[in-house]
């Protein structure tokens, strides 16, 4: 090596090593590729999704029912940097798709990140700017200047109205490009609002941008929105927080910690796997490195040889993997793709993957460079430390041999165990998040009796001047309708939800208006778990008993404080008249998932009310959704505008469309992590066996049979695989729970994401790794049998 072209020799030897170690190169290459792919996908998709949420709106709160006086206070409030006003005018329903007609001032459009991408903002009463996606569903090919006719329900008067509009522009909103959209927006003019007596008399809603919002923590910013709302004279019920904006722009420490934990685990798992592969490969070539040292190769040159192998593999696999990561990230959500930022992040991910490879082979390279010719001559795969205790066994079994090998190579065992554990943690955490997205369960919250369909009083007709009590006059939810529904083939029963509008005496806020809901005797067991004191109401008691739920926002807003035995005086709205009644509190529950504050038994409601107080019929069907049943229910209800029909299937599909991209993303993430973990597993099994061909040959030479060999190898793999699996389930569940808790509090998703232990996915993964472990061990075992024991003993360790 003296004054020759040493660089060329180093390259030649490195290339020869790569050609002679194809199995190692494939395993290491797959791990490097998956790591680069995962990092690129995580960084680019995560960043683009975060930017989309951050830039979808730039306001932190919404103040509803804001009078001119309130708006003037908002204008002069020092905590408000900017504000915009809007007024919802009407709702158009076209089968399962709806269109909101809104008036918005210029500042509101700016804060909502809505713009007219083509055309102009409407100015006259008959002009409209609308989303092209909605037009394509009702009038394909419509262009600016064309006329469209819309039938909408006026949100103030609650009357159905029909009007022809001229299209002046096409809107671009933050939701544009989302698949399976169900809701769209259209902008009408201020002149349109002024021309309608009902709309022009209603208060506006205001969106506010808090001054120096970036300087607040997540919780403090939400408190500030409420403080500003109360300062300008609004009730708590009129204040809404824009959770999507605050949670995406003002991340909690927990959110940041989970993101860093995921990236750290990916990088560390990759580094450990690559380290393990190179470590084993170098230990197998100790004698070769010793021979190179004999002929004059320096330690620096040997380090360069090992590093060159790592560089070559990195350049082979990382560029294509980062491109693939970008491609998948783009395919998941093309509309939110930011080219410049994504390219920079992809380069960072590729650089991080390359740096990870270089760092992970640093120690193996140092080991290779440190081999002296004398050490190489004495080297053997059998290592017994000077301080190790002498192991004795009455019977040397394959199981004992497996345990002895793991104990003898503690460092290698620890590295392998840790790499398997980290990839398992990632998989369990991602599986936890996926299994916790319960769109169907969220829809089920709206069907508390387990029904498939619901017919209710039309919520669109409720307004400040029209309550459910008014709709209950000549209530169409009659016994006759119930009987007709029950007679439909496929209907197993009809459950009735009752409601009474009431006014609490002694409460001034909002005139003390509050609702009373029914409680069925067969549902008593559901309420008992929330019981804090007293008992559930007895419908046969001499005094009328009422159940109180102290867990609602209304209870806190009104400042109520009840205990068992207290008397509550109420004025009940019985159609067009009021009935004064006194109730005795039978018990107090604390159910924060319910919005109902007061409950009366069915029998008591029927006794005290002269009019029908039904609010909805929930229709049960043991065979699930049926298009035929739905058609018959629609035939019974479609002619009465007081009634509204919805199915569990329709609601579930609506919520599923909302989470379409998120679910696909998590599925893709889980699939890639599963591949990463399985490749890691296969690598562990193969390298454990191939690195000990000489040792295994000696054992077989002294009588170890093929069956005993498989038992020994399976024992070693079982300790590593199942031990790491158990630890992965424990730590992965903790990380998954933390991720779910953060997701629950992001954008107000608590109803959609509720932690659920991913038992089915864990079970499937357990079966897969068990089958893979047995299959790979047998395949390698059979492969080794093709070589005689003598040949394996002659191989250089």
List segments where confidence is low: pLDDT < 50 over at least 5 consecutive residues. Answer: 381-389
Class from helix and strand fractions = alpha+beta
CA(first)-CA(last) distance? 25 Å
Strand order within the widest beta sheet: 2-3-8-5-7-6
Number of helices: 30
Gist?
Helix content is 53%, strand content 18%.
Which SSEs are present, and which pair or pack?
Elements: H1 6-20, H2 22-56, E1 61-66, H3 68-76, E2 80-94, E3 97-104, H4 106-111, E4 115-119, E5 127-131, H5 132-138, E6 147-154, E7 160-172, E8 183-188, H6 190-195, H7 197-201, E9 204-210, H8 218-231, E10 239-241, H9 243-249, H10 253-284, H11 286-294, H12 299-332, H13 339-360, H14 362-369, H15 373-378, H16 398-408, H17 410-435, H18 439-444, E11 453-457, H19 468-471, H20 479-486, E12 493-504, E13 513-519, H21 524-528, E14 531-534, E15 545-549, H22 553-557, E16 567-574, E17 577-589, E18 598-601, H23 602-608, E19 614-620, H24 627-637, E20 643-647, H25 648-658, H26 660-690, H27 693-701, H28 706-744, H29 759-785, H30 789-794
Helix pairs in contact: 1-12, 2-9, 2-10, 2-12, 2-13, 2-26, 10-13, 10-14, 10-17, 10-26, 12-13, 12-14, 16-28, 17-26, 17-28, 26-29, 28-29
Walkthrough of the structure:
This protein has 797 residues and is an alpha+beta fold. It is built from 30 helices and 20 strands. It has a 6-stranded mixed beta barrel with strand order 2-3-8-5-7-6. Strands 12-13-18-15-17-16 form a 6-stranded mixed barrel. A hairpin with a 2-residue loop joins β2 (80-94) and β3. α26 runs parallel beside α29.
């Amino acid at each position: 090596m003296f004054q020759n072209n040493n660089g060329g020799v180093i390259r030649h030897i490195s290339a020869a090593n790569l050609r002679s170690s194809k199995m190692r190169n494939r395993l290491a290459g797959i791990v490097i590729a998956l790591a680069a792919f995962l990092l690129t996908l995580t960084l680019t998709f995560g960043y683009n999704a975060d930017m989309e949420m951050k830039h979808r709106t730039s306001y932190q709160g919404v103040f509803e029912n804001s009078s001119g006086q309130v708006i003037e206070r908002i204008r002069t409030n020092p905590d408000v940097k900017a504000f915009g006003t809007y007024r919802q005018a009407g709702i158009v329903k076209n089968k399962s798709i709806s269109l909101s007609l809104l008036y918005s001032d210029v500042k509101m459009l700016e804060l909502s990140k809505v713009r007219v991408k083509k055309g102009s903002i409407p100015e006259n009463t008959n002009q409209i700017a609308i989303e092209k996606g909605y037009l394509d569903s009702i009038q394909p090919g419509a262009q600016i200047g064309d006329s469209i006719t819309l039938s909408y329900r006026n949100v103030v008067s609650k009357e159905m109205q029909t009007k022809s509009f001229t299209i002046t522009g096409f809107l671009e909103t933050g939701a544009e490009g989302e698949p399976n959209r169900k809701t769209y927006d259209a902008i009408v003019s201020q002149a349109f609002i002024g021309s309608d007596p009902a709309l022009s008399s209603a208060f506006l809603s205001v969106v506010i941008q808090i001054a120096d919002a970036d300087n607040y923590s997540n919780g403090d910013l939400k408190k500030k929105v409420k403080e500003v709302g109360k300062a300008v004279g609004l009730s708590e019920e009129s204040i809404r927080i824009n959770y999507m904006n605050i949670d995406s722009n003002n991340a909690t420490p927990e959110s940041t910690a989970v993101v860093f934990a995921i990236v750290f685990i990916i990088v560390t798992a990759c580094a450990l796997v690559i380290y393990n592969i190179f470590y084993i490969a170098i230990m197998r070539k100790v004698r070769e490195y010793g021979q190179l040292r004999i002929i004059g190769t320096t330690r620096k040159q040997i380090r360069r040889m090992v590093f060159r192998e790592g560089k070559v593999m990195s350049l082979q696999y990382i560029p294509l993997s980062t491109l693939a990561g970008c491609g998948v990230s783009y395919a998941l959500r093309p509309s939110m793709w930011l080219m410049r930022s994504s390219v920079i992040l992809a380069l960072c991910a590729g650089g991080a993957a390359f740096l990870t490879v270089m760092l992970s082979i640093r120690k193996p390279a140092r080991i290779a460079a440190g081999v002296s010719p004398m050490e190489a001559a004495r080297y053997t795969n059998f290592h017994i430390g000077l301080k190790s205790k002498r192991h004795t066994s009455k019977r040397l079994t394959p199981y004992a041999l497996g345990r002895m090998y793991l104990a003898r190579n503690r460092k290698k065992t620890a590295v392998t165990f840790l790499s398997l554990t980290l990839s398992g943690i990632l998989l369990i955490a991602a599986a936890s998040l996926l299994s916790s997205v319960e769109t169907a369960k969220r829809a089920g919250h709206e069907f508390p009796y387990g029904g498939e369909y619901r017919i209710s009083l039309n919520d669109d007709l409720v307004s400040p001047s029209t309550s459910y009590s008014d709709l209950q006059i000549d209530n169409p939810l009659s016994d006759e309708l119930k009987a007709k529904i029950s007679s439909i083939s496929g209907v197993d029963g009809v459950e009735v939800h009752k409601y009474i509008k009431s006014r609490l005496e002694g409460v001034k806020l909002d005139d003390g208006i509050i609702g009373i809901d029914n409680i069925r005797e067969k549902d008593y067991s559901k309420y008992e778990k929330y019981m804090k004191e007293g008992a559930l109401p007895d419908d046969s008691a001499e005094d009328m008993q009422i159940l109180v739920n102290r867990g609602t926002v209304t209870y806190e807003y009104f400042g109520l404080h009840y205990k068992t035995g207290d008397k509550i005086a109420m004025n009940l709205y019985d159609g067009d008249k009021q009935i004064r009644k006194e109730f005795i509190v039978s018990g107090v529950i604390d159910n924060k998932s319910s919005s109902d504050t007061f409950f009366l038994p069915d029998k008591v409601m029927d006794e005290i009310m002269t009019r029908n107080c039904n609010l909805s019929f929930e229709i049960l069907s043991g065979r699930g959704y049926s298009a035929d049943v739905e058609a018959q229910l629609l035939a019974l209800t479609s002619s009465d505008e007081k009634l509204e029909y919805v199915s569990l299937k329709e609601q579930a599909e609506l919520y599923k469309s909302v989470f379409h991209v998120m679910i696909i993303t998590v599925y893709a993430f889980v699939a890639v992590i599963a591949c990463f973990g399985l490749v890691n597993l296969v690598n562990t099994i193969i390298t454990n066996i191939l690195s000990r061909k000489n040792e295994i040959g000696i054992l077989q030479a002294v009588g170890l049979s093929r069956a005993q060999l498989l038992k020994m190898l399976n024992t070693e793999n079982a300790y590593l695989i199942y031990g790491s699996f158990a630890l992965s389930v424990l730590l992965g569940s903790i990380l998954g729970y933390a991720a779910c808790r953060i997701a629950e509090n992001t954008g107000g998703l608590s109803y959609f994401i509720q932690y659920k232990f991913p038992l089915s996915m864990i079970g499937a993964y357990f079966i897969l790794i068990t089958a893979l472990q047995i299959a790979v061990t047998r395949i390698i075992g059979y492969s080794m049998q093709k070589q005689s024991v003598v040949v394996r003993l002659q191989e250089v360790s």
